Amino acid sequence: MKKMLIVATAALCFAGNLSAVETAGGAAATTTAVGTITAPVIVATTVVLGVGTAVVANNRGSTTQVEPPPGPGPGPGPVDPTCNGSDPLVDGVCTGTTTTVTVSGTGTTTVPVTFTYLPTT
Amino acid sequence: MNVKIITLIVLFSTLISGCSGTYHAYYQTLKIALTEQDDAKLTRIEVQQSDVDVILVKRGERPAAVMALAFLEHNQHKWVSSDNTMLVMDKGRITRTIGLDKNLLHLLNTDFDPLKFLPKHASDKSQTWLRGIDLTGDEYGYPIESKFSQASPDTIQALSLDIEVMLYVETLQYKAPANYLRVNKSWKNHFWYAKNGDLIKSIQTLSPLSESLEITYLSRIARLSQ
Question: Is the dihedral of CA B61, A34, B189, B206 positive or negative?
């Protein structure tokens, strides 16, 4: 009977050792793990096709050019200044001449007097 | 190959089109999309020196990640990743997932899972096993029927080792009626056992629309070489 118990105990120990070969790390076992199981899968073919489609679509796209509104156009341009009658224009100033008549006891004296004025534009 | 050619053409077109803001954005987008992310890798020495048992998990097209054994309780292995997801396994069968976008909440009728008797009692594998699965999104009790095929010898390369294994293939049928056309009602899971009876690799798909999970038991493989 004792022998049977010893044999049974030895068998149990052996069975226990079988499972004890494997070592569990508890909650800290994640530090031993490497890499991820849940990483998203990027389907390269789909991405390449998508980018190719985008390139083609962008190249076929049209651009609307916005033209600026028309401006006021050219002005009337410069106008030559003119003086009255035949008055000469000298350095941007017209010179006119008038005659002053002075009557005195000895006779009549006529004196030409010049004056200047701005030309009309 | 075709994708590479298309990519090169688009890149070349982008480069010769100048460096305006728009084309720079195209370039950056393509650069992100085409940058290959590397699988997590551990050497045999690193695995042997690890204080915690580790597995390599490749989910769908994502880069492989190393998950660590957090808890071993109630005959269930609970593996965690660095982004706090968890895979709960019973004799290698994924019975629950936590932290994924769509999770397996519960697996019904697990007492009769043929995986529990492999590889020692391979004669039981021919039995059909009907189970139900509960998924997030209010999807409960979807029936799945599976049957294991005869074991076939195979070789697995991992941690710079060539390991002779026995491969068991589980063929699964999704038995729930659908109101729409369903094309992927049947799929296969794969389980590789070493000669000492340890499960050292599996590829499991939990439901027809789930991404596959390829699991390589690095620590068990490292112990094989000791």
Answer: negative
Nearest residue in chain A measured CA to CA from B218: A22
A34–B69 CB contact, under 8 Å: no
Interface confidence (ipTM) of the complex: 0.71
Does A75 map to a domain? Answer: no
Q: Do B40 and A35 touch (CB under 8 A)?
A: yes
The minimum CA-CA distance between A29 and chain B, rounded to whole Å, is 5
- H helix count then E strand count, chain A: 2, 3
Give B155's strand partners.
B164
Which of A69-73, A92-96, B15-19, B43-47 reaches the highest mean pLDDT?
B43-47
Distance of CA A115 to the CA centre of its chain: 63
In a domain, B39, yes or no: no
Host H or E run for residue B15? helix B2-16
Domain extent for A97: 80-121
In a domain, A107, yes or no: yes
Structure tokens that stand for A96 in this block = 């006119």
Would you call B30 and A19 a contact, using CB atoms and an 8 Å cutoff? no
The DSSP H or E segment spanning A56 is helix A44-60
Which pLDDT belongs to residue B77? Answer: 96
Which of B119, B204, B193, B197 lies closest to B154, judged by CA? B193
User: What is the rounded CA–CA span in Å between residue B134 and residue B111?
Assistant: 16
With H, G, I as helix, E, B as strand and everything else as coil, classify residue B46. helix
3-class DSSP assignment, residue B192: strand
Q: Which residues of A touch B80 (CB under 8 A)?
A: 29-30, 33
Categorize the per-residue pLDDT at A11 as very low, low, confident or very high, splitting at 50, 70 and 90. Answer: very low
3-state secondary structure B121-188: CHHHHHCCEEEEEEECCCEEEEEEEEEECCCEEEEEEECCEEEEEEEEEEEEEECCCCCCCCCCCEEE
Domain holding B49, by residue range, is 44-224
- Quick one: closest CA in B to A59, which residue? B17
Interface test with B, best of A23, A37, A51, A56 (most B CBs within 10 A): A37
